[in-house]
Amino acid sequence: MGRNISIDLHVHSTYSDGRLTPAELADLAVRHNVVALAVTDHDTLAGWREKTNACRDRNVEPVIGLEMSCELDGREAHILSLFADPEAACAERIGDLSASRLARMKAMLERFADMGIHIGMEDLPVAENGVYGRPHLARALVAKGIVKSVSEAFARYLYDSGPIHIAKTRLSAGGGIALAKEMGGVAVLAHPGVSGLIQEIDRLAALGLDGVEVYHPKHGGETIARLLRLCRDRGLLVSGGSDFHSPGDGPDLGAAMAPVDVLEPLRRLAAERKGSA
Ligand code: AMP
Ligand code: FE
Ligand code: FE
Ligand code: ZN
To answer: What are 232-259's pLDDT values in tens digits?
Structure first.
């Protein structure tokens, strides 16, 4: 509140591992002076109509998109498709990624059971269409009093390659970039300063990447300056988002403070792409 206006092109809802519904997210956007919002759930475009209407009803500009789980040399690379067309035929291919998350969650619950920790599907917070992620498990562990916080849940049980973690179905980075664009969207690398992929941006650009999530609450001033230079030198577009998941747990919606003027070039590229499809 009282913040300058900004945009937020990366938040999560109950359609994946976020805790708020699209309407609650749009309310928060208004409170934080966020004038354009992309609800980019993990591996699904489900709920895009509800998300669009929730924003429009509150005079927030909706941007349709998603965050795809991809892989580069065995490392996790998250690729956003912004301004994606949810009715593009190729969007069906995301179905494999989202569907695999339900089976994976059941297998992770079995791993907990093997450790004597019994969590049932009914203990998990809502994930529309079964698009579950580890944060659902973390919140169930907190609710059951097994850990005190989501971060403790990750540190003790849920960390990558830990006792519970099971790899997700992922696209190759090149495949994810291609699909992001085939859907008419702009392919943006999410939070490279968090995933440690800044050094790989040139490779991803060679694979067709369009842009980089430069503004992010976990990118410090030096990282932002470095990424802005990189984007300028390589002709990549600039994006920004908070990766907001849940109130009181991680960065708040709008915390990226992404400037409004990054939106237009992204929109223009997506429009050109759809026009030439
Ligand atoms: P998954 O998609 O199921 O592999 O879970 C990864 C998600 O867990 C990420 O999108 C983050 O939202 C969240 N996450 C990863 N590491 C942590 C952590 N240390 N603390 C809190 N949340 C985390
Ligand atoms: Fe997430
Ligand atoms: Fe991510
Ligand atoms: Zn995210």
So the answer is: 999 999 999 999 999 988 999 999 999 9
Residue 165 to residue 254: CA distance in whole angstroms: 30
Please list, in sequence order, all residues whose beta carbon lies within 8 angstroms of the beta carbon of residue 227, skipping any fewer than 6 positions away: 192, 193, 198, 212, 214, 219, 238
User: Which ligand has the shortest distance to the CA of 250?
Assistant: 1
pLDDT in tens, 203-220: 999 999 999 999 999 999
Cα-based distances in Å from 260 to 83, 152, 266: 16, 35, 11
Tell me, in angstroms, the distance from the centre of ligand 3 to residue 116's CA. Answer: 30
Q: How far is the CA of 57 from the centre of ligand 1 (A)?
A: 30
* pTM exceeding the 0.90 threshold for the entire prediction: yes
Centre of ligand 2 from the C-alpha of residue 136, in Å = 10
Q: H or E element: which one contains 237?
A: strand 237-240
- Count of alpha carbons within 13 angstroms of residue 220, beta-carbon side: 1
Q: Please say whether the dihedral angle defined by the alpha carbons of residues 105, 46, 11 and 210, taken in this order, is positive or negative.
A: positive
